[in-house]
């Protein structure tokens, strides 16, 4: 093991003579958060190693101005004019940084800093800049603009990557327009099912995905969708920087979260049907009330989730509709949508199986028909890669930043990148854990910490 990654970082590049050593050491200490040792090997020069927090904040504010709702809220939906403007803005920064910019058929944007062993798998980072209606300006954005600032920090430090470093802006992490979350990364990870369904997908204006993409300047021929798929060896590692979207780091006063696993949801639609009838005329023994069947199933979901024995298993009945929905009418139909999440796929799927058994039993006991029990999606959870976790921990330690190992309960493009690359995520605190609303906020200091940990993590992985 090398004595310090910083020596590598700082020795790199054409070190000019005559730079004040004491200044170099002080700057290095500021960046690293630990005393710099001088073992007398050659010339060292620290370039400006600080994160440009003001510049990053200015970019975040500028990007937030591309919005279809008034500030402080942000609305930026896939392939809208504002989304196109945001894309142009990101590509502009990539070009300014000297990155090689490429876009794939659906508009995933890649900015690559080519390493001196360019044939090796690259180290990638990135996130999304689309924003659900009336949300905030940090979700996803910190992982794109922050990643570009991390590249900038490394460039200013004189670092020379061995493996190429790449920043990715993913298309449509949010499901707002076409009901498909993580569209870009899901496709990159090789989802044949998605490649097929995108040919037929329409938005709520009945505008097809292909036509919407066309309006944003992406001419998609259905065969091109397969060109989005990436090989398993494209990336050596993928690391995403993101706001926590939860309250833990802020509450504990810990600046960095290192994500060890990403929980994944399974969604289920259920329908019960009964005979309905007049609320006064049909006597209780004669009823088969579809609403009560739904109520019982909702309680069964809670019971099975709690019975899993793990705090990481969560289940929610977020939609419960009754038909015809009149005070004097026995519900003849009920519709439930159930979301079950866990970081353990088997445990989550066991809960779903038990929910299914309960639905069948309830329908028998209450003499209603279980007319639908449909698993809408069942994405597998993902574990972070051990080597990537090690690199993130190494970086946080080098920087003297306290960190906490934690689970991501929301899911991210990283969930899909994990299918084609060793993956890890870095979380930073956000105000009260707020997200998807205008009050979303991360402090410049917390963002700077995240950028530094990301920069060092990528630098370390690049040299492996
Ligand atoms: C949506 O558009 C397609 C093709 O243009 C058309 O056939 C279909 O009827 C439309 N559906 C609705 C609900 O308007
Ligand atoms: Zn996000």
UniProtKB/TrEMBL annotation:
<dbReference type="GO" id="GO:0016813">
    <property type="term" value="F:hydrolase activity, acting on carbon-nitrogen (but not peptide) bonds, in linear amidines"/>
</dbReference>
<keyword id="KW-0378">Hydrolase</keyword>
<dbReference type="InterPro" id="IPR011650">
    <property type="entry name" value="Peptidase_M20_dimer"/>
</dbReference>
<comment type="pathway">
    <text>Nitrogen metabolism; (S)-allantoin degradation; glyoxylate from (S)-ureidoglycolate: step 1/1.</text>
</comment>
<dbReference type="InterPro" id="IPR036264">
    <property type="entry name" value="Bact_exopeptidase_dim_dom"/>
</dbReference>
<feature type="signal peptide">
    <location>
        <begin position="1"/>
        <end position="16"/>
    </location>
</feature>
<dbReference type="GO" id="GO:0010136">
    <property type="term" value="P:ureide catabolic process"/>
</dbReference>
<keyword id="KW-0732">Signal</keyword>
<keyword id="KW-0659">Purine metabolism</keyword>
<protein>
    <recommendedName>
        <fullName>Ureidoglycolate hydrolase</fullName>
        <ecNumber>3.5.1.116</ecNumber>
    </recommendedName>
</protein>
<comment type="similarity">
    <text>Belongs to the peptidase M20 family.</text>
</comment>
<keyword id="KW-0479">Metal-binding</keyword>
<dbReference type="GO" id="GO:0046872">
    <property type="term" value="F:metal ion binding"/>
</dbReference>
<dbReference type="Pfam" id="PF07687">
    <property type="entry name" value="M20_dimer"/>
</dbReference>
<dbReference type="Pfam" id="PF01546">
    <property type="entry name" value="Peptidase_M20"/>
</dbReference>
<feature type="domain" description="Peptidase M20 dimerisation">
    <location>
        <begin position="266"/>
        <end position="357"/>
    </location>
</feature>
<dbReference type="GO" id="GO:0004848">
    <property type="term" value="F:ureidoglycolate hydrolase activity"/>
</dbReference>
<comment type="function">
    <text>Involved in the catabolism of purine nucleotides. The sequential activity of AAH, UGLYAH and UAH allows a complete purine breakdown without the intermediate generation of urea.</text>
</comment>
<dbReference type="GO" id="GO:0000256">
    <property type="term" value="P:allantoin catabolic process"/>
</dbReference>
<dbReference type="GO" id="GO:0006144">
    <property type="term" value="P:purine nucleobase metabolic process"/>
</dbReference>
<dbReference type="InterPro" id="IPR010158">
    <property type="entry name" value="Amidase_Cbmase"/>
</dbReference>
<keyword id="KW-0464">Manganese</keyword>
<dbReference type="InterPro" id="IPR002933">
    <property type="entry name" value="Peptidase_M20"/>
</dbReference>
<dbReference type="GO" id="GO:0005783">
    <property type="term" value="C:endoplasmic reticulum"/>
</dbReference>
<keyword id="KW-0256">Endoplasmic reticulum</keyword>
<comment type="subunit">
    <text>Homodimer.</text>
</comment>
